[in-house]
Amino acid sequence: MLKRLTEHLDKSNVKYVVILHSPAYTAQEVAASVHIPGKEMAKTVMVKIDGKMTMAVLPASSMIDFTHLRQSLGASKVELATEAEFRDLFPECEVGAMPPFGNLYSMGVIVETGLTEDEEIAFNAGSHKELVKLGYRDFERLVSPTVLSFGVKKKTHDAGDAGPEVA
User: Fold this and answer.
1) Is residue 159 in some structural domain?
2) Alpha-carbon separation of residue 50 from 62, 105, 130 (angstroms)
3) Number of domains the chain contains
């Protein structure tokens, strides 16, 4: 995936940095290992909105408030997608490490408002060992996400990010 993503970024004249790190499987672990604040580490959570697969992108330090997201979208049903439902959509990516570029997969992207406040964001680049960091405005220009407020801060006593938690 890294090759596909970096080719897309290069073609779009976007400045970015690729960071290699030891294997880490949660957004919070990745952020800690590469010394990036959790609010700048973007995690991609796969959700189904009225049955349509969509990428929800939010800071590693947040979790999705599904009720608020459903109401904001005016959707009947918003639910977490299972790995079995989305695994085959990203054949070149390790499960759970897809970059938040739904446009490369003909898929919608919803971004939590909090990420728009960051000058730069970082995210998994298809594996649990590669990270890409770039300017948020470049990301927004390339992906054209829908920006909504749907995240809530994780409680500070959480030891780590065990995955896409539900508020």
Assistant:
1) no
2) 23, 19, 32
3) 1
Q: Is residue 89 a part of any domain in this protein? A: yes
Report yes or no: 5 and 131 within 8 Å, Cβ to Cβ: no
**Kind of pairing between the strands at 42-49 and 52-59:** antiparallel
Does 75 reside within a domain? yes
Contact between 108 and 101 under an 8 Å Cβ cutoff? The reply is no
Assigned domain for 123 exists: yes
pLDDT digit string, tens, across residues 111-163? 999 999 989 999 999 988 999 999 999 999 999 999 999 999 877 544 444 44
Q: Which DSSP state fits 145?
A: P
Q: Which domain holds residue 138?
A: 2-153
The percentage of residues in the chain with a pLDDT greater than 90, rounded to a whole number, is 65
**Cβ count near 37 (within 10 Å):** 13
Q: How far apart are CA 1 and CA 90, in angstroms?
A: 9
**Domain at 121, CATH number:** 3.90.960.10
CB 137 within 8 A of CB 120: no
pTM for the full predicted model: 0.86
